[in-house]
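Hey,

Quick one before I head out. I ran the complex with pyridoxal-5'-phosphate overnight. Inputs first:
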Amino acid sequence: MAFIVDLRSDTVTKPTKSMMHAMVNSALGDDVFGEDPTVNALESKVATLLGKQAALFVPSGTMANLIAIMVHCNKRGSEAIVGNLSHIFKYEQGGAAHVAGVLLSTIQNKPDGTFDLQELESKIRGSDIHEAITSLIAIENTHNVCGGKVLPIQWIDDLAELCKKHNILLHMDGARLLNASTYLEVPAERIVRGCDSVSLCFSKGLSAPAGSALVGSYHFIKQARRARKMLGGGMRQAGVLAAPCAVALDDAALALDHRRARVLADVIHGLFLKTFSVDVEGQRTNIVLVRISENSPLNADQVLQRLAQICLAETQGSCKTTNDEGVIVKAICFNEKTLRFTLHREIQDEELWLAIMKITYVFKELDAAHPVKS
Ligand SMILES: Cc1ncc(COP(=O)(O)O)c(C=O)c1O
């Protein structure tokens, strides 16, 4: 038998007992008629939390981002500018083009998840008859591919100013916005003050079973509600899903995930191996990126495969549970040389230490067996 520590994503979290209790005991109605009291209460709660006029409960973060693009770019021939490492660009199937008929243009993300504002300004277009019309800028906070980085508030404010100057709207993919708010110890409402819309996921570190909110002005949300229905996201007695989301907001414990991620990052850094490195200075929230040296013959897939195997020597030594089970660690590959480990509510101290034992064992073994070429 193996003990599995699943660090692939904070989306693997399961609803807590109080979430299950809320699911069973909440008042329900038909949300497409606007009559589900639990959904309505959640929407008001999120709108207040983010300091905006209104919110809409949607099935997923992907749908929230797509609706934001559809509504903000409702003139044909519109373009949205997004980071080249953004979830919207990399992992949403180009839904903006596919479904909304919107051109996505990219700007290069810096390692901290931001991009250069002067470069952005030079990309804004639409005055020339040959060009698409830039209607929207979308940012991501925290930034997933950049390793859970938190966007500086001043940078967001400066960007918002720039958008206003050019009459362009600003959307934040805030799937992990509350991680940013927790890290900065600043209310989420302050972070998103300059944004016209924000999406926020309940089913990542917050650990509700499903759902996201899209937040903005009354007018924006009215249009977003129409778009949600068209996309098939009108969910009738959706209170069963909204109830655990409200609990998730009240019971969020993201600082613990950040602390555990920091411990994991520090331990890997402290191994001082040539093959594996972690940017401990840049460590911010619940995501730990491990880079494999460009001069190593190893790739991220091989490392994942080894983390999923248990060899006899491990269980004969101390790399096992108190029940003598070997340990498997799951993570994901971001690219050939980058692994992502994500901390979340299912990973308490015991799981963390088992993961650290296993990762330490495997990293040392691979570093010795596949030396980095100098
Ligand atoms: C930054 C970011 N935005 C959006 C999403 C999409 O969320 P969903 O999986 O709910 O569609 C994800 C999912 O991992 C994400 O990491």
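The CA atoms of residues 265 and 280 lie 6 Å apart.

Talk tomorrow,
K.
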